[in-house]
Amino acid sequence: RCVISYDAKTGMPADTLLNIGRTRETEIGNIAGFQISPTERHIMVYTDAKPIYRRSFKAKYYVYEVQHRVLKPLSVEHKMQRSPIWSPDGRMIAFTAEDNNIYLAKIDYNTETAVTTDGCVNEVINGVPDWVYEEEFDTTCSMAWSPDCMTLSYIKYDERRVPLYSFPLYEGTCNPMSKYALYPGAYTYKYPVAGEPNSSVSVHSYDVDNRKTKNITPQDLKIEYIPRIAYAHSSDRLLVTTLNRAQNRMEIFGVNPKSTVARSIYVDESSTGWIDPSAWEQVRLYPEFFIIASERSGFNHLYQYNYSGALMKQITSGNYDVTEYYGYDSRRGMHFYQSTQASPIDRTCASVDSKNKVTIIGSEKGTSSLEFSPDMQWYTMRFTDIKTPPVFTLHTVKASKPVRTLCDNADMLSRYGDLGQREFFTMNSDGVRLNGSILKPYNFNASKRYPVIMSQYSGPGSQEVLNRWTINWDDYFVKQGYIVVCVDGRGTGGRGTEFKHSVYRQLGKLETIDQVNAARYVGSLPFVDASRIGIYGWSYGGYEALMAATTGNDSPYAAAVAVAPVTSWRYYDTVYTERYMLTPKENEDGYNEGAPVERVADLSCPLLIMHGTADDNVHLMNTIQFVSRLQAENKLCQMLLFPNMNHSIYGCGARALVYDNMLNFFNAQMGK
Q1: Quick check: 515 and 542 in contact, CB under 8 A?
Q2: Is residue 107 included in any domain, yes or no?
Q3: What is the Cα–Cα distance from 207 to 146, expressed in whole angstroms?
Q4: Residue 546 is part of a domain; what is its CATH number?
Q5: CB within 8 Å of 308: residues ≥ 6 apart
Q6: Nearest to 356 by CA among 335, 372, 327, 377
Q7: CATH number where 19 lies
Q8: Residue 559 contacts residue 584 (beta carbons within 8 Å)
Q9: Tell me, what's the pLDDT at 672?
Q10: How far from chain centre, in Å, is Cα 83?
Q11: Could you report the per-residue pLDDT of 315-350, keeping only the tens digit for each?
Q12: pTM for the whole structure
């Protein structure tokens, strides 16, 4: 009910900026979140948030004037708003309403203006992304203010050519929908599966004074996607980041919103695979230059360019990946980043100065991460390793010692002292060294032979085997007498492009070889019962569980569980699938060979599939088609559906039910 500022050094409250119980003009019961204006004179709060997709939501927003305690609705005409964004001077807020149009609220005058008028549900979206952009490009806002506040630029998504996708909704019992008590409803939205049309995207600029709009889209036939737009410290310099459909070529244009002149200032291309999402996610813009990540050397590193497109310097180098860029301290000429410098399973934070001197921040081993203040003078560090729960400390960039410890989670070890013992190991699969972890029971007895559950995700660029402290459902399985093993196969991250791009155009092939070899390796250990090895995974992990379970009669698995699995890449979205596989027309063999639905005849172990019926990401159709193919082969599996649940299968105890059923299934199939 309150927004309170704190003194960074002492941690003591400094001021109450907002107290919901003491507002004037408008009263609301609570707030779900807030944004402070750039001038700190206003606070935008929201309530009654309604989820849309994984990250997006609509809500009722209000603007609070701090000095006079006046609270007003952001919009009177539009009750729910999406992705509101402050102008740099804090005097205007742009937002998208439920009609898919952008509106501009002027705080000083309490007025509202329509920026666009062509928005229409399932046809045209202005200022916020469509489903596939939100899901795969990790964005919820497609608007950007110019530094002088005179121009609002935005992306328009014309999704009229994108096929509609529909799935049923039921009354259910978790947040029941009584309107569907007798007749199911339907949820319908635009979802482009691999090979189908995407939204046509265009960039526009709106002049606040004359209320005129211009199309400023760079004219380039290679452009399929525009994942980001941002002003680069100048009102006549909007950076528009673009990708071709194959996502192996990224180009950044500098666009003048007034003249509409666009000039290419950066190009990155991959000859072995795809452009990693970090390339557009980690761009940082400074007055005279920008920092960008590239895998051109075979490892992900940072580069500095000026706005004419000239390379100024390479900031990091070596046989390791930069995994996060935190920013640049202009006072000291230092860049801060996180990397795999110590090893692929560790995350090390460091700074590099203008003379290329690298200084490690904190521990080289384990997993460290930093979060900086806007002026890059303060940061919090989060550190954890295999034996240490996360420790949070506050630092200044000037001092080596922490200002204070924010939280050390010391009680975690005493509260959960009987957790399993996690160890790392390496193994070879077809001559390639893989990293793995093994979680043994607290009272492990080397003379016993334990059943094993293989836990994995396996998706391109992902990583599960990391030097960090965790407590999750794998610990629950260990409490029940299992050993849990995880191996990161080929295609996963932290080891450069040669390792990661090995799965290009052939998802499922090498990952499956590696998981099967990992199971056989584990089965050779003296304390493992090789006849009782199971495998499970969720989403991509569910896909890989199905691929591993359909390897024929020499399969090492006694049971498999797949949660929300992809069963053919033909059923999944364009952006994710084509990044790794290209289109079905360009790679028919890869799609066929990497599809569990094409391998059902080789299912050789008992199988449990669980799926939410309202999964907007990996549609239930994946599971239905797989089960249908099984039945055609006179084969059966167990299946558990979660009515009205999405990809996360969360709420009303559903998540616990997933893992309880998983455990019961493994117990039944592996004789426990």
Answers
A1: no
A2: yes
A3: 10
A4: 3.40.50.1820
A5: 265
A6: 335
A7: 2.120.10.30
A8: no
A9: 67
A10: 18
A11: 999 999 999 999 999 999 999 999 999 999 999 999
A12: 0.96
